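Progress note, sequence design subtask.
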C-alpha cells in the first residue's frame, strides 16, 4: 500500500509548515488528490489517521478534494477529461491520451492553532 508512504509525505509537509509558521496543533487538512494520481482515497484516509497518531496532527480531520483528470489526445489534438490513465479519448475514442492534469497530490490548506 503506497498510500502509507504518501501519508508520511503529507505529515512531513505539515511538520515543516509547523516549524516555519510556528503552530502546534493541526485541526483540519485539505488534501487535493488528482484523479490520475493513483491514490486510493479510502486507503489514504486510513493511512493518514495512522501516521498522524502522536503528532501535532493527531485527530485532525482530513478533507479530500478530488481534482479532475485531464489529458491531451493525440488522435484529435484536444484536451479532454479522463478518469483513468489509460482511458481512450471521450471525443474521438483515440489512443493514446497523454495525462496532463490531475496527476498530483498536494496539501492545499491547513486549519491550525
Ligand atoms: Zn481525441
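Output:
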Amino acid at each position: 500500500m503506497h498510500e502509507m508512504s504518501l501519508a508520511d509525505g503529507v505529515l512531513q509537509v505539515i511538520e515543516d509548515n509547523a516549524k516555519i509558521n510556528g503552530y502546534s496543533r493541526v485541526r483540519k487538512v485539505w488534501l487535493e488528490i488528482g484523479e490520475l494520481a493513483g491514490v486510493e482515497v479510502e486507503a489514504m484516509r486510513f493511512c493518514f489517521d495512522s501516521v498522524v497518531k502522536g503528532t501535532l496532527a493527531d485527530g485532525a480531520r482530513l478533507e479530500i478534494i478530488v481534482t479532475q483528470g485531464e489529458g491531451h489526445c493525440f488522435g484529435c489534438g484536444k484536451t479532454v477529461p479522463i478518469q483513468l490513465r489509460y482511458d481512450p479519448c471521450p471525443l474521438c475514442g483515440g489512443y493514446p491520451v497523454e495525462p496532463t492534469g490531475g496527476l498530483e497530490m498536494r496539501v492545499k490548506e491547513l486549519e491550525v492553532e
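The mean pLDDT is 95. Work on this subtask will continue into the next period as scheduled.
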